[in-house]
Amino acid sequence: MTPVRCCLRILGVLLILPVCACSRPAGERPRDAGAPAVQKMLSINLPKTAGAWTRPDAPRRIDETSIFSYMDGGGELYLGYRFDHLDVYEYAAPGRDPILVELYWMRGSDDGFGLLSNDWGGEPVVLQPSNAGDAPRAVPASRALYGAGLLRIWSDTLYARVMAARETAESREQVMALGRAIVAGRPLAPRPELLDLLPDRVGATYSIRRDRVWFLRSHLVLNSAYFLASQNILDLSLACEAAIAPYESGAPPVTSRKGTPHRPHLLVVRYPDAITARRALAHFLGAYLPETRTVPQPDRRLSGAQQVEHGWVSYRLDGALLFVAFDTPDARAANLLVGGR
Amino acid sequence: MADHCVTRRHFMRGTASTAAALGVSLAGLDRLDGLARQAVRPARSAVVTLVRDRGALTASRSVDAAVLSRMLSETVMRTTGERSARAAWLSLVKPTDVVGVVPTEHLNPTHHELFDAVRQSLVDAGVPPANVVNANGGIEKARSCTALIALPALKAHWLTGIGTVLKNYILFSGRPSRYHDENNAGLGEIWNLPGVKGKTRLVLVDALRPLCDKGPQPDPRYLWDYNGLIAGVDPVAVEAIALQIILEKRRQIRGEPWPLSPPPLCVTAADEVYALGTSRRNEIKVNAVGWTADLLIDRASD
Q1: Angle at B92 between CA B91 and CA B96, to 5 degrees
Q2: Model pTM?
Q3: Nearest Cα residue in chain A from B163
Q4: CB-count burial class (<10 Å; 0-12, 13-18, 19+) for B81
Q5: Closest-CA residue of chain A to B261
Q6: Which residues of chain B neighbour A228 with C-beta distances below 8 Å?
Q7: Which of A71, A224, A229 sits opposite B5 (nearest CB)?
Q8: Would the ipTM clear 0.85, i.e. be above it?
């Protein structure tokens, strides 16, 4: 074993040991909290016709074994959430381009939300009345977004895409009608609780970019939102919940060598338990901040900040919760973002 | 595990593509930086042809085949310096070649009208119809050809950042998933596989209606009418210009830099690691003709 690997293993053990005596540290969720939701509604009786368009009797059913045949490597996105299956309908009409309906059935409402959060762009669309408890948390209030013929919908455990191959006034009307049919009678699920851990404002300077918040579980999705590393150095998995958001301030952002500006980002991950979280932090420190092993940390590296090529990186472990801030311009901002002092 | 991990820190240092392709760890960054400073890459130069015509797509976004045919002839003549389309094609391939044309089929497929126009041009130049084949597929397709024409459509990609020229041959590898995410830096190695290396006579990018966001499924908000063909014999130079167009369009949409994530490491790696051509803008001359609105290319160094 090389000296570096040896140090990292020792670090990992040091980080894990103290938590073994704990019962349920802060942030840890009950064991069943992240489990697949009850299979409540896994089908929808879509209308046979939508204006001039007619659908086939049965959908094309796609599962995790066939998703790559359906959409090439793009299937990784859906498998990066808790995917159950996909139903595809193609509505056809004489002399008109088709309307494609894709119903992604997920195992939890957070997963459907996560897919919508990949892109908050487009025109917000209200397909069903909201209720008093529909607090938007740190994200836009939209549950459906439309643009250029494509309607994207989050409805409880369902994420849907309804797309007219050619946008016309007529196709738009039918896309919206199908959207209303999809959500009719379905519950308005709450947004992921984890979003509450992304503060709207940090100090007097930083405010969240609500329209850039992603909810995710996989490192591939994280890399699509914010490139961190080619490997899964935060040990993300379908058992984790994570959210990442950029923050803005009037201060000049840090820049890459090529001069591209990079805003501060706050990532929060909730692991299944505190032990898993500590292991993940050890992994992250070894892979991303190897310098930290040479810096004495009185609190056993449960929190810290390190200057790197692009500003400062800071982290704070709180039970099963890990906060990491990237691209911050100074140590103070780095500590503020992760909730430290 | 971290020994072969490429991180944001590599990327910010500007060593990510090399590190990704070579499997250099973060701990080895300083050594890599030192090597990079010492390395003297031979100067290269490349010409990329860009032909645009506002009439290439109709109001209903159908391809105008006649306009496209003229654009194609103009493109190959400017790329080769020949005075006729026939002479241009014959400077690229021989009538005895088996020519594999490699379109892309997923996400933002190559327009079939362009594939048909290329095929017809080759036949008009004297290549027997049976010797012009669609070579998209496994390595056996490439092996059966004596010449290749890369015919991708311009698009960003969810797993590789950009999914245009260098990714065009990914099926030749037999293991496409091996090149996803930051492993996209290795895409250049496919162009050096036995059966592929040295066969590409022309890189011709369908930029009629590019896709500037990554998918994984097409979002029509990110498709736009660029009405262009981009061509050259240096795949890296063509990819570099394609990437510039994508990034500039993304900047235009958001009004601020909107980098691709994961970063398209394959472009620099194809230059610095696989020596397939140049990715440096100051070594690339863009020969642009036709419609000039929203060109999305910095012409300062041309």
Answers
A1: 95
A2: 0.88
A3: A73
A4: exposed
A5: A224
A6: 7-8
A7: A229
A8: yes
